[in-house]
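Researcher: Next sequence.
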Amino acid sequence: MAKLTLIVTRGGEIRRHPIREERPMLLGRGSDVDILVADVSISRHQLTVKHAGDALEFEVSPQSRNQVLLNGRPVQAGTLRPGDRLAVGYCSFELMAEAEVPQARPARVPPDPAGHIDVSLAEEEQRIAPRWMASIEDAKAQQPKKERATPPKPKTLLEKMVLPAMLVLLAGLGYLYYQRTRPVETLQPPERLDLFADVPAIDCGDPEECFNRAKRAYELGVKLSEQSGADPATLYKAARQFQMAAMALKGQMLRLPELQPRLKAARQRVIEAFEDARLRLVRAQQEGNASAALAAIEEQLVLLQDSKHPYKDQLLRARVRVMEVRDQARREAISSGRVR
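Model: Next structure:
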């Protein structure tokens, strides 16, 4: 029977959970589950999974209201095989099966049929070796000696310095040409990028303490979202506070009835602002507008300031490249006399 491992992907974080063969396992964000997935889009009791040979049988818990997609199709139960993709909320699940290969038994070497080797017989070599060694030395002495090759003329100090200097100069010119002609890569974010995957959870144990801290985070989010002329950065901070409050309530959303609609509205506004900045970046790159591209990159970085997603690193590298292109264009304009 294959060894199964469930791979859980949440934002940029990947975790592996081995599947036991003895009994079914419960998956969710509750404290009493076998496979813990700490995400607000997962129910406390989301799935029940069971080892089934090279596959994994699953069933959605009756109390869960989250939609479960198997390869893009909604299901209530089914079989997850290697290569399939299971998605719930902001999380995806994949299965990896490893076959157990039996270990080979150690081979038993039979005894040598010729019997024990007597090492003392090797002493006979001392009487034979001088004869054939002498014949080999005589044959070498009769061969004509090769003429000694003339050593190469040593290089002068000028020759030693000119060649490395020319190589360095050519490398520098090649790098400058590459910097001037290298196009700015068009950045495309991943198919699904969760801007709030790395929101820290509120550390609390007592339910009343968790409610009080959630209420403070909710009130701070309301204050930020209702500021006049709130920019995307402020909206992003408000949405983070709402999500921290929702995580602290641990499913008791009815204690703050306005939290869920405010969280949904703030997240939607932040996602729209991020998508708008991404489209403006693509348009600016196509038009060769370095200033507009730099502004769009900065707006996206503001909304990814706490993210650990690899797309953030791509944006940082693109920002450096766009600044180089902009500065190079300014230098060329100054040198040609268009700008004084």
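Model: The mean pLDDT is 79. DSSP finds seven helices and eleven strands in the chain.
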